[in-house]
Design a protein that fits this description.
Blueprint (H helix, E strand, L loop, with lengths): L15 H15 L4 E2 L10 H17 L2 E3 L3 H10 L2 E3 L2 E3 L4 H9 L3 E4 L8 E4 L2 E2 L9 E4 L3 E4 L2 H13 L18 H15 L4 E2 L5 H15 L15 E6 L5 E2 L1 H12 L3 E5 L10
Parallel strand pairs: 2-12, 10-11, 11-13
Antiparallel strand pairs: 1-7, 2-4, 3-4, 5-6, 8-9
């Protein structure tokens, strides 16, 4: 007589994917979102030296000024703030810039990440490590140095995500020249959002590209756009605004800065002293 054997149920054996997930979870638990310094600052200059630097900076701002080109709105904003505007050249009364900074710029703020455990606090005693910015070339053992592609960009985002020593996804980790300039920013910001849950930087190469960066971030953050602590939009993006040498801001940088400022997103203003670009 034939006997029908009951099916045997076997426990599923762990797969390679399970091991990778466990490894990622362990790394996330062991990593910290940023470093809080416990040692005091090293004072390179004393109060006398710092005061002299600020006095000289105020002299340059007051007597020489800075050009704000092709942006009438920026000139009107400076005029309303009390600056002396002559054509496209803006002269700042002594002490005006410090006063504006003290009134409007917080000593520290939180940049919210898609994963709240990855949010970083910028300023104060905090140090946030991020990947390098703006590299036009990549290098590997097989090809040597070459221009970067979007696949390189994605790989660098993934590496930064996996690294427990990097607290931030960065911005233009490399420049993917295989994509058209007018849409390149979309692929880069999308890569940060897709392949990492750390905080990231947006595009500044045109005002409309800054708007695209804010729009993409809003899609990801959804209904969690308001910071309950401040009642203002969450700071989801940090950005790099460069001054052109010598002491000139153009419509591209000014337009992007205004887009981010009005959306309550953070802006880093840099002098952009870059070897081979505006310096020997």
């Amino acid at each position: 007589m034939d006997q029908q054997q009951a099916p045997t149920t076997h426990a599923r054996r762990p797969s390679g994917r399970d091991a990778k997930r466990a490894s990622r979870a362990a790394r996330a638990a062991s990593s910290i979102p940023y470093i809080t310094r416990k040692i005091p600052y090293y004072e390179v200059l004393g109060e006398e030296g710092l005061s002299l630097m600020e006095q000289n900076a105020d002299t340059i701002l007051e007597e020489i000024g800075i050009d704000f080109r092709d942006d009438p709105e920026a000139l009107e904003l400076w005029k309303a703030a009390g600056a002396d505007v002559k054509g496209e050249r803006v002269h700042f009364p002594r002490g005006m810039c410090r006063s504006l900074i003290q009134k409007t710029a917080p000593r520290q703020f939180t940049q919210h990440a898609r994963n709240p455990a990855r949010s970083v606090v910028i300023g104060g005693q905090n140090t946030v490590f991020a990947p390098a910015y703006g590299s036009p070339f990549v290098r590997n053992l097989d090809e040597g140095r070459r221009y970067a592609k979007i696949e390189d960009f994605r790989n660098f985002v993934k590496l930064a995500y996996m690294s427990t020593s990097l607290h931030h996804s960065g911005g233009t980790i490399c420049e993917p020249v295989d994509l058209p300039v007018n849409k390149r920013h979309l692929d880069m910001v999308y890569s940060h959002l897709k392949y990492s849950d750390k905080a990231f930087m947006g595009s500044v190469t045109a005002p409309e590209r800054a708007e695209d960066s804010v729009a993409l971030a809003k899609i990801v953050f959804g209904s969690e756009l308001t910071d309950p602590a401040t009642g203002r939009p969450k700071t989801m993006i940090i950005n790099l605004i460069n001054v052109n040498s010598p002491m000139t801001y153009d419509a591209t940088m000014l337009g992007a800065a205004k887009v981010y400022a009005r959306a309550n997103q953070a802006v880093i203003i840099t002098p952009f002293i870059l070897a081979g670009a505006c310096r020997p």
